[in-house]
Amino acid sequence: MAGTKRSKIKKNDQVAVIAGRDKGKRGRVLEVAPTTGKIKVEGVGIIKRHQKANPQSNRGGGIIEKEAFINISNVQLIDPQSGKPTRVRYLVESDGSKTRVASASGHSVEK
């Protein structure tokens, strides 16, 4: 069952975490993995990793903190109108183009 799942959340979107350990936090999407249905959000799902020093790439060793992937179902997009979390739907224009729209307010979430 390989392939990609369609995600209504894209990189650099502002999202709110609605479930899990970091519930209530907000952040910017850093990375989307459509095949696994997971995303990385800035400042959310922080894990500690032991990193070996690598002088060749000028990287120090030690315990580093970084964002882990969280399930895409645990976040909702922030409505640009109200600033609250909302579901997302697509509005299909007559020429066939699709735009992402906040379900709550009906306003476009595109930049």
Give a quick precis of the structure.
This protein is mostly beta strands. Helices cover 0% and strands 41% of the residues.
SSE topology:
Layout (H helix, E strand, L loop, with lengths): L13 E4 L8 E8 L4 E4 L4 E6 L10 E6 L2 E2 L3 E4 L6 E2 L1 E5 L5 E5 L9
Antiparallel strand pairs: 1-2, 1-7, 2-3, 3-6, 4-5, 7-8, 9-10
What does this structure look like?
The protein has no helices and ten strands. It is an all-beta fold and 111 residues long. It has a six-stranded antiparallel sheet with strand order 6-3-2-1-7-8, with no helix packed on it. The protein has a two-stranded antiparallel ribbon with strand order 4-5. The chain is elongated. The mean pLDDT is 92.
Mind telling me the C-alpha Rg? Answer: 17 Å
Beta-strand share of residues: 35-45%
Strand order of the largest sheet: 6-3-2-1-7-8
| Strands, count | 10
- Low-confidence region ranges: none
Helix residue percentage: under 10%
How can the largest sheet be summarized? 6 strands, antiparallel
Order of helices and strands: EEEEEEEEEE
| Shape, principal axes of CA atoms | elongated
Helical run tally: 0
Q: How confident overall, as mean pLDDT?
A: 92
Structural class: mainly beta
Q: Could you tell me how far the N terminus lies from the C terminus, measured between alpha carbons in angstroms?
A: 33 Å
